[in-house]
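Provenance

Sequences were taken from public entries as deposited. Structures were produced by running a predictor on each sequence independently, with no templates supplied. The record for HNH endonuclease from Streptomyces sp. Y1 is shown for reference.
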Amino acid sequence: MMIRQRLTVVAAATALGLAVAGLAGGTAQAATAKPKPPAKSGAAASCSRARLPLPDPTCTPGAYNPAVTQATIGSTICVSGWTATVRPPASYTNALKTQQIAQYGFSDTNPADYEEDHLVPLELGGAPRDPHNLWPEPRYGSQPAQSKDQVENKLKTAVCGGRVSLAAARGAIASDWTTALSRLGL
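Predicted structure for HNH endonuclease:
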């Protein structure tokens, strides 16, 4: 009995320590943490598909990582490999993707047909785990998910090269990634 109590106390202390470490790290969370979708009333199809290939701005308005500012881009987004340090694990994004496919009311419910994409990309300091910055972007259609990746890379290059401010790039991609480059003259 005494050993069981001691193991319970040690396990609880370890779990508490991990939770505190995850909070202290800012972007780390337990891999088993269940994602919380944006608060919406109603059931399935609470998000509109009318703006595809863009997300519903009510469900997915975008969100920023507070560690990334114009002053910190030299030590964050402009450092090669930095996004890998903040990218959420697939266990988190896959669970969120399944929830959001239902919220968007997609008739195709196969998660493989969607990329759980950051509206404001990690390359521009988008919030890594905020459900308001993530959405199930279709991998099919006239402008599939991989089309946006090229825009993200060009915007990051322009921001890191000093041709566009971080705020301008974030605003352009969040409002309409299909016109972001032309709006910024890139």
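The longest helix spans residues 2-25.
The longest strand covers residues 114-118.
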